[in-house]
Amino acid sequence: MKLNWTHKTFSFLLSFLVLFSTLSLTIEKHFCGDTLIDVAVFTKADMCGSQSPDEDHGNRIKNSCCKNEKEVVSGIDQLVTNSFDDLDDLQQLVLLTYSYTYQQLFNELSQAVVPHRNYSPPLITQDIHVLHESYLI
Description:
Helices cover 31% and strands 17% of the residues. By secondary structure, it is of the alpha+beta class. A hairpin with a 2-residue loop joins β1 (25-32) and β2.
């Protein structure tokens, strides 16, 4: 039971490790002067006054104080996956032996059968040793 829970937890953590190590993000920030106006992850940051640079070319006044910063967090580009057949014979033997002994280490023992588990002892009404005056010395 405990081994099953540990196995599931470890598998879950490893899957998140692979997911977040390969994840790449782009974080865009828009500043007007020294004030941060908008931060966007995976999308473009809004400009001052919610105007995009493509809209309204003739009427838009270009502010020289506004600037955009783009930060790219890149993950691992390629993951190397090896199969069991890529290992040499000695490594395969060691891996198989280790996994077999590790698996056999955590086998649960069968529960011992207790035949008198549901048996209730008789009620003692008198102390028989005192009644017969038989004491072990």
